[in-house]
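Lab notebook, bench 4. Still working through the backlog of constructs that have no structural model yet. Next entry is a single chain of 302 residues. Request: give me the structure tokens for it.
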Amino acid sequence: MLKTILITGGTGLIGQQLSKRLNEKGYQVRHLSRTENLAAKYPAYGWDTQAMTMNPKALEGVDGVIHLAGAGIADERWTAKRKEIIETSRIKTSQLLYNYLAEAQSKPTVVVACSAIGYYGNRGNEKLTEKSKVGNDFMADICAKWEASEEPIRSLGIRMPTIRVGVVLSTQGGALPELTKTAALKTLAHFGGRYMSWIHIDDIVEAFVVALENESMNDYYNGTAPVPVTSKDMIDALEKAYGSTMLKMPAPAFGVRLALGEMGDVVLNSTRVFPNNLEKIGFKYQQPDLVAALKDLFERKV
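Model written out:
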């Protein structure tokens, strides 16, 4: 039975909620962090991806690892330096984790790895499943390299399900605060028929928990809600969730490109993703309906 779980990237949006959920379920949670603090609620063991070192005690007695580490995709404009950080923060942490797992006398039975639906790139209306090929833009290239850097962990005899995370909806960060920036002015902007493959924060957290606990899971899993929606559908759902009439305006792509540069791909790409493998293992969504999911997020402020 799993008891102690180590999380990399534990202070991020998903990591914080996941730590809380695992703690509620009775797990002992610890983090890998650039700043070591063993007295914290979730003890944080230090690691350094520049020196490629970590506190080896982080893995002592650990039954499972959830590997979420990686610099935020939309935190800053994509300069050449920022793109390098986005890449190395994923690949180096995976390599560092592998190095120490390979040397550990007692290994965890499972490492739940993380990727993103950016793997598929900009694919318009194409229906995408875990069997779909990789895309051909920057994020697709990053995700492919990310997954490749995690793959050696399997050679250690460790089960490694990988969650390709979709557009996580939460009031605490990610896409939703950006989508609702102008809501106080009774105005919402959309990008027409561009597909958004969304998921409620509680459901993506539960997907990681199930991957940790379900011994049959050892594949790639799209971490998205059952039905992707267009950007316009998202804005219509937000209007219903708010319960008041909004002025819904199409946002010009050239304006996004001008403001964000290449990072605008995060906003403008159309990725219509279906979670076939999660559905095959019988994953139960708490919030499969978009309007209900948004109402829940606004009411609970999660």
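Notes after review: The chain has a mean pLDDT of 93. The CA atoms of residues 237 and 284 lie 22 Å apart. Flag for follow-up if needed.
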